[in-house]
């Protein structure tokens, strides 16, 4: 039986407009949070607040004495003693406000999500399964906050001047997981405009998995500051594939995958090539199997975004990670992730109709 591509579908969630708006607002704030987090990292501000006070920490220093106390706490940190020993109070205030703003945005996101969830729960706006799913997403958000502090604490250990790359990667990846879950839920509640053929389901899952792998590899690049080295393209260390002595210079062998800036950057490059190749293949496959369908159009848009993201990554590398380029690269990466989630969600909806 042939399905007409322009046949209108029955609206699936016309009564959930308020919930959709709430979820999209949360997703937007998480997106902003990721960008602010990138700025906090690139300005070296992430270790300026050396305590985790979930409630009282929301109040910034309000007097000269309070500022002096906060600065003294930072002066006891390894980052100050090993890297920023010449920092004055004015410079400290700059990095403090970045980290404080990052934490306040996180608090606001948590409160907004909690408030929306209680409205859904108390007014019984959704079936129990969907409500339970929203509850689980809230737990994921709380876990993300805890991982954030674990990440910061790793940078306060003796001899450390930055957070551990693996823990930064976990922080970024869990932010991506929560962001993806919110985007998926909000997309699922949006009514389908037309019925689509069941095509590309497996490919959509593979694409999303590759996006998460690439985000994780990017987190390792950011955490190890690998983007400040090997600032040439397409060659790296004078070759398309650096020597094994360069890629696996450290011991034990497995630590090269997280601590060796050469291998960390090389893996991120390879991940980008694989991701773009698969995105392009998906476009060709869907255009052949379902020309003119929403799936084909979404796949085309994603391939274009992946190409743009790859080009921006090259520019960021060649310019040695200026602030604007680093932030744009991170923001575009989460834009691609959002498109990948929408694509998968719509594909799944088409498969279930």
Low-confidence parts: 1-14
Distance between the ends: 14 Å
Count the DSSP helices: 12
Overall helicity: 55-70%
Number of strands: 0
Morphology call: flat
- Gyration radius, to the nearest Å? 22 Å
What is this structure, in a nutshell?
With 353 residues, the chain is mainly alpha-helical. It is built from twelve helices and no strands.
Which properties best describe this structure?
353 residues, mainly alpha, flat
Provide structural commentary.
It is built from 12 helices and no strands. It has helices at residues 17-42, 64-75, 78-82, 89-122, 128-154, 165-188, 201-224, 244-247, 256-259, 261-289, 294-318, 323-351.
Strand-helix topology:
Elements: H1 17-42, H2 64-75, H3 78-82, H4 89-122, H5 128-154, H6 165-188, H7 201-224, H8 244-247, H9 256-259, H10 261-289, H11 294-318, H12 323-351
Helix pairs in contact: 1-4, 1-6, 1-12, 4-5, 5-6, 6-7, 6-12, 7-10, 7-12, 10-11, 11-12
